[in-house]
Specification:
By secondary structure, the chain is α/β, with parallel strands linked by helices. It folds into two domains: 134 residues, D-Maltodextrin-Binding Protein, domain 2, CATH 3.40.190.10; 114 residues, D-Maltodextrin-Binding Protein, domain 2. 36% of the residues lie in helices and 23% in strands. The chain contains eight helices and eleven strands. The strands form two sheets. Strands 1, 4, 5, 6, 7, 8, 9, 10 and 11 form a nine-stranded mixed beta sheet that branches. The radius of gyration is 24 Å and the shape is elongated.
Amino acid sequence: MKSRAIVDGLWCLSVVLLLSVSARAVAAVKPLTVCADPNYMPYSNKLGQGYENKVAQLIGHALGRPVKYVWSSYRQKGGFENFLALNLDKNRCDIIMDLPYGDPEEHFTAPYYGSTYVFVYKKSKHYDFAAGMDSPILRHIKIGFEMGTPPEMGLKMRGLLLTAKAFNTASSPRLSPEGPLQAVQDGKVDVLITWEPAVGYFIRKHFPDLAMKRVPDTNALGTPERYMFFMSLGVAPAHTSLIPRLNAVIKSHEAQIKQILSEYNVGILP
């Protein structure tokens, strides 16, 4: 009996030691820190409901690292550039989720998706946007656009800016991309020119009467115009050693990432 008690005691002690070592090992795993907006759907929010949240969780899991957020608004004073300066550039996190591929001032991974600006309009209108920003119909309908984006310059080049309605969703945390969509639904504008990942989610959920058509890149006026962009992960200066591993995850999990984006109605370029 005494020997059995000793064996049982040693077994219990070994279990306790094993659990203690396991707990320390888990605690020692460094989180993957992500700077993200706490309230900007469909990108991200504190409840983890945005597509950036979902892709971040996928990447963290693939790296074997828990995801930890550093919350900061994309739409603070100074906009997205100030968000980068105050967070990524100061190494407050390892990565951000959406950075235009090729940004000359930041470190970045391979792109994990590409998308475009789109014309959003009522399906019942059957507008012809085959010529993109040079489509003749644009001279006869009320246009809405997001301030500070490529469509603004495209409209200005064509003399259409003064009669168009500007929206400033990307500069105010109080606003949602749903607002400009509602303006199309209510007939306040006939077409909205905006970034597809910002609105596809809401169109699928709340605006079934609206259609989207991609805005093609064009240089019809002699000046190159870009409406298609590939998005990468922005990487902090202190953590550039992560880039090869992140690139490997992006490549090996392409199908899963594509599925996440599809669930948010984000149109993906080849």
